[in-house]
Design a protein that fits this description.
alpha+beta, FAD/NAD(P)-binding domain, D-Amino Acid Oxidase, Chain A, domain 2, eleven-stranded mixed β-sheet, six-stranded mixed β-sheet, globular, binds flavin-adenine dinucleotide
Length: 415
C-alpha cells in the first residue's frame, strides 16, 4: 500500500520535504494557504553558507546585553512585553548562549548546512534554475578595529570548523567590491558561500518540479488537526477534511499555532526582519551579498534590485510592523553603498522561527504516531530546507540519516 502523506506549508522546508517524500514513493499532498514560497522563504537574503553555523545566541550576546538595553541598535530590537510574556523562551534562549552549548549547536548546524548545500545543488539542477546561483561567497564588513575584534569568537568558531575564509583589509575590500564606499577597515570573506538572486522564485521552481513529478498542491488554509484512526485529519478553513497516514507540519513560524489544536506546545521566538529593494544611484554594483556588522543589515544583489534586510526584531508573530529599525538600517546602508529608491512603497516583513537552542525540530512527535515536525530554522531555513527533507524522509522510512538527527529531535521540547 502506498502511504499517503500531507505536508503542511509550502515554504522551502515543506516543498523540499514534499519533493523528497515523493521520490521515496509516498503519495504526497502539499498544502499552503498561499502559493509556494510566498512567505518567509520569499523575503530572505538568499545566502547559503556554513558561516551560519554560529547561532545568534552565543556568548557575544551576553557581552552585548548592556548595549541592547537602550533598544536602539540596528542589529537587535525587542518588544519587552513580548519577552516577558514568553519568559520560558527568553530564559532558555539566553541560557543556550553558553560557550559549550554553542559549540554543540554549531557542530549540529554545520552538518545540516553542509548536507543541505549538496542537496540544493541537486535540486537547482533538476529544476533548471542554475541561472539564479552565484558562487562568489559573502562578506562580513567592519567599520573599525573594535568591531572586527568583537567578532573574534565567531572567527575562532569558523577556524575550529575549518571554513574557507580570508581576512581582508580596506584595499582588498575595494579590490573585490569597488563600488563600496571606503568606510570599512576589515572584512571576513566567507569564500564557499553561495547566493540566490530570487529565493521565492527558487522555491516556486522546486514546487513546480514537485507537481511535474506527480505531487499534488492544494491551496487551502489548515484550521485544526486531529487524530483519525491510525492516521491524521486536517480540517481546512473552508470545512474540508483531508485524511492521511502521515502528517508533516512545516509551517515555519505558524507551526506552534496549529499544533496547539492537538495540545502540543512549542516554545517559539519570532526574530522578525524587514526588507526592501533599492537601485544603485551611480550604476556601480555589488558582486556578492554583504553583511555590514557595524551597520546591522545585509545588502544582497537580487533580481528585483539590491535587497536590504534588517537584523532582528523580537516580537509576537503577528504584532504590527514597526519601521524605525528598518529606517536606521537604510541610513547605515547609504553610508556604505550609493542606494536610490526604494522600489516598493512599504517594507516586507518576515519572521525567522527560532527555538531556544537555535536548532530546528526535525522528526517524530513522541507518542503521536504519524505526526512529523520540520520547523524552527531561524536565520538559515532557506539554506537548510533540503537537508531537513533528507533527514526527515530517512526517519520516516526507518533509514539512518546521513547526519546525526538527535540534536534536532522533538523530545528536546516535547516530552
Ligand atoms: C529578513 C530575513 C533574512 C533571512 N536570510 C536568510 C538567508 O540569507 N539564508 C537562509 O538560509 N535563511 C534566511 N532567512 C531565514 C529563512 O528565510 C527561513 O528560515 C525559512 O524561509 C523558513 O522556511 P519555512 O519553510 O520553515 O517557512 P515559510 O517559508 O514561512 O513557510 C511556511 C508556509 O506555511 C504557510 N502557512 C502558514 N499557516 C498556514 C495554514 N494555517 N495553512 C496552510 N498554510 C499555512 C505559509 O503560507 C508559508 O508558505 C532569513 C529570514 C528573514 C526574515
Amino acid at each position: 500500500m502506498v502511504r499517503q502523506v500531507v505536508v503542511l506549508g509550502a515554504g522551502i522546508v515543506g516543498v523540499s520535504v514534499a519533493l523528497e517524500l515523493l521520490d521515496r514513493g509516498f503519495e504526497v499532498t502539499l498544502m499552503d494557504r498561499k502559493f509556494p514560497g510566498e512567505e518567509t522563504s520569499y523575503g530572505n537574503a538568499g545566502v547559503w553558507t556554513r558561516s551560519s553555523l554560529v547561532p545568534i545566541n552565543n556568548p557575544t550576546l551576553w557581552k552585548n546585553l548592556p548595549k541592547f538595553v537602550s533598544n536602539r541598535t540596528t542589529a537587535l530590537r525587542y518588544y519587552l512585553p513580548f519577552l516577558m510574556r514568553n519568559l520560558n523562551w527568553t530564559f532558555r534562549f539566553l541560557m543556550n548562549a553558553r560557550h559549550s552549548k554553542v559549540l554543540e549547536t554549531a557542530a549540529a548546524l554545520d552538518q545540516l548546512i553542509s548536507l543541505s548545500m549538496q542537496e540544493h545543488m541537486r535540486l537547482v539542477a533538476a529544476a533548471g534554475e542554475e541561472k539564479r546561483l552565484s558562487e562568489k561567497g559573502w562578506m562580513f564588513l567592519y567599520r573599525n578595529p573594535a568591531g572586527f575584534e568583537a567578532s573574534q569568537l565567531t572567527r575562532d568558531i569558523f577556524d575550529r570548523f575549518d571554513l574557507d575564509t580570508e581576512i581582508l583589509d580596506a584595499d582588498q575590500i575595494s579590490d573585490l567590491e569597488p563600488s563600496l564606499n571606503r568606510i570599512f577597515s576589515a572584512a571576513t570573506w566567507i569564500k564557499d558561500a553561495k547566493s540566490i538572486d530570487n529565493p521565492g522564485a527558487l522555491v516556486a521552481a522546486y514546487a513546480k518540479l514537485f507537481v511535474a513529478k506527480g505531487g499534488k498542491f492544494v491551496q487551502k488554509s489548515a484550521q485544526s488537526l486531529s487524530q483519525s484512526g491510525s492516521g491524521w485529519n486536517v480540517t481546512t478553513q473552508d470545512g474540508d477534511n483531508v485524511v492521511c497516514d502521515d502528517l508533516v507540519v512545516a509551517l515555519g513560524p505558524w507551526s506552534p499555532g496549529l499544533l496547539k489544536t492537538v495540545s502540543i506546545n512549542v516554545p517559539m521566538g519570532y526574530e522578525r526582519g524587514y526588507h526592501m529593494h533599492f537601485r544603485s544611484a551611480t550604476g556601480g554594483h555589488l558582486n556578492r551579498p554583504i553583511c555590514d556588522a557595524s551597520g546591522g543589515y545585509v545588502l544582497a544583489p537580487m533580481e528585483q534590485g539590491y535587497r536590504l534586510t534588517t537584523g532582528v526584531e523580537l516580537d509576537a508573530c503577528d504584532a504590527p510592523e514597526k519601521i524605525n529599525q528598518f529606517e536606521q538600517a537604510v541610513s547605515s546602508a547609504k553610508e556604505a553603498f550609493p542606494l536610490t529608491g526604494p522600489v516598493e512603497n512599504t517594507p516586507w516583513m518576515g519572521r525567522r522561527p527560532t527555538l531556544p537552542d537555535s536548532r530546528p525540530i526535525i522528526g517524530a512527535v513522541p507518542k503521536r504516531k504519524g505526526l512529523w515536525l520540520a520547523f524552527g530554522h531561524q536565520h538559515i531555513g532557506f539554506c537548510t530546507g533540503p537537508g531537513t527533507a533528507r533527514v526527515l524522509a530517512d526517519l520516516m522510512t526507518g533509514q539512518s540519516p546521513p547526519i546525526d538527527a538527535k540534536p534536532f529531535c522533538a523530545e528536546r521540547y516535547l516530552a
